[in-house]
Amino acid sequence: MAINLQNVKLEMTAGLKSQFPKNNLPHLVFSGRSNVGKSSLINTLLGRNKLARVSSAPGKTITINFYNIDNKFYFVDLPGYGFAKRPPKERAVWQKLVNDYMVEAGERSAPMFVMQLVDMKVGTTADDCMMLDWLNQTETDYMIVATKADKLNTTQKKKQYEKLSNHELIRDGTEIIPFSALKGDGKNDIWNVINRVV
């Protein structure tokens, strides 16, 4: 599929279910904990510096950002999670908004595919495991993007990759792509998956 990456825009920042786009374009969903590198991944994939803004206070913004990619599909940026650091009220707002989105997106006829981001150096957190469990229970299609791969040497990278490959909650056959926003490693592999999905 030919995609014009000059024709990309932030179409909607949604804090309410009623604000979600109503068309039937495919959704490529970016999910991960706060500060895992979702904005950096989106910017790198689109060849932009500041389209997706890196928050100065990670986890504070509870909205879902819909980036229209050449009127062919959306990049959907879910608010980062990190439940342990959040008061119960904020947690409830996050859970309702994300649940509303995932349920509604799952009922659409167009494809929805989740790019689940995991910090390659840190590995899966308890919150990551909760999200993976949810994706498995709802039979949602997903891949793993192992971010910040440049922070590990070759031996460490191999060890962490094997851990993810053998993780009990990561579905057998799931694609796992190490990614570095700094070096661009993994960018083409992720685009190959996106093109296949949409």
Write the layout of secondary structure elements.
Elements: E1 8-14, E2 27-31, H1 38-46, E3 64-69, E4 73-77, H2 88-107, E5 112-119, H3 126-137, E6 142-147, H4 154-165, E7 176-178, H5 187-197
Parallel strand pairs: 2-4, 2-5, 5-6, 6-7
Antiparallel strand pairs: 1-3, 3-4
Structure notes:
With 198 residues, the chain is an alpha/beta fold. It has a single domain (8-197), classed as P-loop containing nucleotide triphosphate hydrolases (Rossmann fold, 3-Layer(aba) Sandwich). The chain contains 5 helices and 7 strands. The longest helix has 20 residues, at 88-107.
Strand content: 15-25%
Mean pLDDT: 91
Number of strands: 7
Helix-strand topology string? EEHEEHEHEHEH
Amount of helix: 25-40%
Q: Enumerate how many helices there are, as a single number.
A: 5
CATH architecture: 3-Layer(aba) Sandwich
Major sheet description: 7 strands, mixed
- Under CATH, the homologous superfamily reads P-loop containing nucleotide triphosphate hydrolases
Q: How are the strands of the largest sheet arranged? A: 1-3-4-2-5-6-7
Q: Main traits of this protein?
A:
seven-stranded mixed β-sheet; alpha/beta; 198 residues; Rossmann fold; 7 strands
What would you say about this model in short?
With 198 residues, the chain is an alpha/beta fold.
